[in-house]
C-alpha cells in the first residue's frame, strides 16, 4: 500500500511540475534574491535601453535561476572563480585537433560550399571574407547548424548576470537579448542559446546579434536560428567589421629554427614575412611564401610552444580570434578552411602534453607576474603573452625555451 501511495504522489507531483510556466523551476535558495535582482537591476537597465514594460512583464514573469549551469560562483558574482576548463579551447592544444573531426567536417563542408556557392560568392564580394572561412566558423560553432542549442537564452543570461563570474557583462547581454525580443526578430520560444548564452547557428552573443546579424534572405527577420543565408551573412559581416584584410589568408604552417626563439611569438612582434625568411623561417610544406606576402607583416604563432606545429600568421588570424579569444579556436578555423580544398593535416606533430586547469594556469601566471613578466592578465588562459613569458623565464634559468607549461 505505501508503494502505491508513493507512486500516486509521484504522478501528481510530476503533473504539477508540468503545469508550471516555461522557464520556471521548483523553489530554490536564491529565488527571492533573484526576483529582487530582476525587479531592481534588470528592469531599470532594460527600460533605459528601450525595452517596453509589456515585454519585460511577458519575458521575466516567473523566471527562476538555472543553477545547473557550469561556471557559476554565487549571487553578485561573489565567490571563488572556477578552476575547471569548461570550454574545449582552454585545454591542451593536441586534444583539440582530432583527425576524425576534421575529416567529417571537411567532407560535409565541401558539399555545403557547393550548395551555397552563389551566396558565398556574393558575401565575399560584399564583405571580402572567403567563403571557406565563413563555412569553417559555421562548422565549429554549430556543426553547420546541426548541433543542439537547447537552452532558454533569457534564463541563461539572467542566471549568469545574477550569479556568474562576470555579472556586469551578462547584465548587458541580457538587456541586449530583451531588445532582440522587443524588435521581433525571433520569439522567446525560438531564442535558443548555449549554456554560455550564445545564440543560434553562429553562436553570437546578443550584443553581437544587434550589431552584426544580417537579414540576407530578405524575409524581414535576422534569423540566425533557422536561416542558413542569414547565418552565413552574419558571420561574414562580423569578420569584415572586425577588420578582415581582403586578399590575405590567415597564415601558413612554418618551421621555426632553434635560433629564432619562441619568445618572439605574438602579433605585437610582427615584421615583414621576408625578414622571417631571412632568419631561416621556411614553410612546412617546402614551398616558398607567396611573393605578395613577403613585404606584408606576419608574426610567429606557436599555440603549443615547441610541442606542436608553428605558423606565420597574418592579421586575419587575429580577426578570427575576435570571434573567440583562443589561439587554438582560430587555428581550428583556418586549418579546417584549408582542408575544404586539400584534406591534409598538419605537417608537424602535436607532441603529448598534459591538460591543466584554469586555476593552475592562473597560479602560474601570478607567479610569472610577480617576477615582472607580462602574461596578459591572470585569466587562466595560455595565450601568447603567457607562452612567451614562460619561455623567457626558461631562458633566464639557463634552459632552452619551449614556451609551454611543464
From TrEMBL:
GO terms for molecular function: peptidoglycan lytic transglycosylase activity. Residues 34-338 form the Transglycosylase SLT domain. Residues 1-27 form the signal peptide. GO terms for biological process: peptidoglycan catabolic process. The keyword Transmembrane does not apply. Keywords: Signal. This is Lytic murein transglycosylase. It comes from Roseibium suaedae. The lineage of its organism: Bacteria, Pseudomonadati, Pseudomonadota, Alphaproteobacteria, Hyphomicrobiales.
